[in-house]
Automatic annotation (TrEMBL):
Cross-referenced Pfam families: ABC_tran (PF00005)
Membrane-crossing residue ranges in chain numbering: none
InterPro entries: AAA+_ATPase (IPR003593), ABC_transporter-like_ATP-bd (IPR003439), ABC_transporter-like_CS (IPR017871), ABC_transporter_ATP-bind (IPR050166), P-loop_NTPase (IPR027417)
Assigned protein family: Belongs to the ABC transporter superfamily.
Gene Ontology molecular function terms on file: ATP binding; ATP hydrolysis activity
Protein's UniProt name: Putative hydroxymethylpyrimidine transport system ATP-binding protein
Chain ranges of the ABC transporter domain: 2-227
Keyword Transport: yes
Length: 239
């Protein structure tokens, strides 16, 4: 089952308040984009949902609407690609299955690698890839995981414009009906992908209604571009 994610409370690291008290929700089966100034605590929220909460003190509650555990149901793509240097690209993409003691599905892995444009790079170590190729390998590993909750921390930031548009569409299609929480600084990306768009400041998170149409929306559709302009104005006004 695909749960809704919710969080309500205040986060500290050491004696420093990072954010809150505030509350947010990422609805079940929808793609939520989370935007906000650098350092406001967006990645901290993702770390909490991913169970990577070491060093964070959270006063409040967060979790899945069905009360079930988060960690076994989460796939996360961190800001840093975290590819293991001693494994080739195929080894990295199939790492999750091997760590769980399962037989990796190499056919599915090859298909995903082809879809992210890395079919010819499967046997290469991460050190032989460009920054954008590494990011696509990390995306392939996340898509490979097939989890109901997917956390993405600036997953397309290193990609050129055309590749970014292709990868946004691919992720939007592959992750349809998952609960996706996606941090981005890119208003165009939020306009294209968001079913819900959240704007975060240190003390609140506001939800903004998305443009019409189902995501992933055409990047050059009039409504997408108009929404992007509105969102940019809002982000500039909040800065
Ligand atoms: N280990 C740490 N010790 C102290 N402060 C930390 C630590 N890790 C993060 N922080 C602080 O927590 C705050 C929130 O960081 P976080 O990475 O969640 O922000 P963010 O909104 O994702 O930023 P960005 O958009 O730049 O990635 C920042 O101000 C950062 O300096």
């Amino acid at each position: 089952m695909t749960p809704t994610l919710s969080l309500n409370g205040t986060a500290h690291i050491g004696a420093t308040r990072i954010f809150g008290p505030l509350s947010m929700m990422a609805p079940a089966g929808a793609w939520t984009c989370l935007l906000g100034p650098s350092g406001v605590g967006k990645s901290t929220i993702l770390r909490l949902f991913a169970g990577l909460d070491e060093g964070i003190t959270f006063d409040g509650d967060y979790g899945a609407s069905d009360g079930g555990p988060l960690m076994p149901r989460v796939a996360m793509m961190a800001q840093d690609d975290l590819l293991l240097p001693w494994l080739d690209v195929m080894g990295n993409v199939t790492l999750g299955a091997r760590m769980r003691g399962e037989r990796p599905d190499h056919t599915r892995a090859r298909d995903i690698l082809a879809r992210v444009g890395l079919a010819d790079h499967a046997a290469k170590p991460p050190s032989a890839l460009s920054g954008g190729q590494r990011q696509r390998a990390a995306l392939a590993r996340t898509l490979m995981e097939d989890r109901p909750i997917v956390l993405l921390d600036e997953p397309f930031s290193a990609l050129d414009a055309q590749t970014r548009a292709r990868m946004q569409r691919l992720a939007g299609e592959v992750l349809r009906e998952r609960t996706v929480l996606h941090i981005t600084h890119d208003a165009a990306e939020a306009a294209r992908l968001g079913d819900q768009i959240l704007l975060m400041s240190r003390d609140r998170i506001d939800a903004i209604a998305p443009p019409e149409g189902t995501s992933p929306r055409a990047p050059d559709a009039e409504e997408t571009l108009r929404f992007e302009a509105q969102l940019m104005r809002r982000l500039m006004a909040d800065a």
